[in-house]
Amino acid sequence: MNDNRYTTLNLGPTHPATHGIFQNVLTMDGERIIDTEQTIGYIHRAFEKIAERRPYYQITTLTDRMNYCSSPINNIGWQMAVEKLLGVTPTKRIDYMRIILMELARITDHLICNSVLGVDSGALTGFVYVFQEREKVYEIYELLCGARLTTNVGRIGGFERDFTPEVIKKIYDFLDHLPKVLRQFEKLLLRNRIFMDRTIHVGAISAERAMNYGFSGPNLRAAGVDYDVRVTSPYSSYDDFDFTIPVGSQGDTYDRFCVRQEEVWQSIKLIRNALDNLPEGKYFIDVPEFYLPPKEDVYDKMEALIWHFKIVMGEIGAPVGEIYHSVEAANGELGFYLVSDGGRTPYRLHFRRPCFIYYQALPEMIRGGVLSDAILTMSSMNVIAGELDG
Amino acid sequence: MDMDNSFITGKLKTRFTESILSIEENSDMLTIVVAREVIHEVIRFLKENETLGFTFLTTLCGIHYPDQELQLGVIYHLHHFSDNTRIRVKTFLPLENPVIATVTDLFSAANWMERETYDFYGIIFKGHPNLKRILNVEYLDYFPMRKEYPLEDPTREDKDDRFFGR
Prior knowledge:
- The structure holds two protein chains of two kinds.
- By secondary structure, chain A is mainly alpha-helical.
- Chain A is 50% helix and 11% strand.
- Chain A has one domain (47-389): Cytochrome-c3 Hydrogenase, chain B (Orthogonal Bundle), CATH 1.10.645.
- In chain A, the strands form two sheets. Chain A has a three-stranded antiparallel sheet with strand order 1-2-3. A three-stranded antiparallel sheet of chain A has the order 4-5-6.
- Chain A starts with 6 loop residues before the first strand and ends with a helix.
- The mean pLDDT of chain A is 92.
- Chain B starts with a helix and ends in a 40-residue tail after the last strand.
- Classes of the chains: A mainly alpha, B alpha/beta.
- Chain A binds chain B through residues 40-41, 44, 46, 48-50, 52-53, 84, 209, 211-214, 225, 227, 232-233, 321-326, 333, 335, 337, 339, 348, 350, 352, 356-357, 359-361, 389-390, and chain B through 27-29, 31, 55-59, 61, 63-64, 75, 77, 81, 84, 86, 88, 107-109, 111-113, 116, 120, 134-137, 144-145, 150-151.
């Protein structure tokens, strides 16, 4: 707006409070926000295009880099999408292992979002508490797959290796310790007068508008819509478990905080349940065309060597088909729309990236508010630049 | 309420007759292909008809089939929450005149989805409030997801890579 009364303020692209590289050009009247224009795409890496050249198993590494705060959900979501195209069903053990990993990832993602929300409102302490716990999850990832952030965990058809007793012990230790820290964290923020004043009625959106904007995940549930892919279209045996879906009422920053916080508690319950009842069985299923054979077999079995070679060289075509598969990622419905023409790579792969869809509602949510509230709103929406830009 | 495919297709067929070009039920969800002239009406009907009520736009994306007469496609995934029914709506348009009506007036979510589709496929959404590139740089003069722009072949040998240490 070219009006002398208003100030134009560039929030970003590299301001630390913007949580990544994206820009908001704010039109301000003093401290009030009149309007904003978002610029995104600074870390766009053309994953959808790259995926059209890559054999299926190599696309897992692309999904890592979308929501890098909870990569296992992306990895496993993609693997399940391919399994759906192939028409194979994993064993119960795989399902439960996947649930454990995905819920661990959800915990880290929510912890980051909520603790950083605290930081943005001036409470640094809680952040330090929960980041120690996040570190423990990363150690679990490290034991499982060797990587911490971009995990590339799991394979099409299961896992590359089983949970070792060490991993299981580490997860139990984590589950035993986390509630204590989480309670300390909640003590700091949940009923904190300053935090409540800063977040209640800030950046609110109604259920109807949220639906219209394609919100999903904790942001939609905070607005009062009880939609969770884990419940409506259960995948990976989520229907074996008993857990609650927390729902907010105002759709404001505080509700989003509370919904995430409660989801962490539910995830703890889910992981413990899955781990206690971890079924016996194989950690991979028989899809030789896509699941890399164990390395020992490659050295001394002819058939394994052939499959290994064919998979690595990307010589194997997938069946012709068209599927949409979605999982409940940490910040919403992560969808994979996959069109296969029978070739070695997808013909078209579209990621439904929840961030990309709900971030466009930001102007409507911060209009009329003050700048410091806009930072909190953005922070509580959990916008991850990698996922936003794809 | 319990909707099955025949109920939805019946409703659509009565309302749109021959504008519904094909109906496919073999894939993971009901897929209908419609003529591009009626796409806005179809989406509105699916959303606002009191017996249907697909009030959630899950995705909107483009696709390119260079071998078809109508090369470009737009694919909509709609979701009915309380019934947990999904539907896929497709429409195809020619490369020379890739114009289609926007659905931003029905779904605010479509704003960026349509901008993304425009950005990568050059599909023009008529009536869109702010149709410009979103992820790519503004001065890009082609639409990169179209199939005529292949990614570099990793096995090519005609390139001199000495300076890049590969």
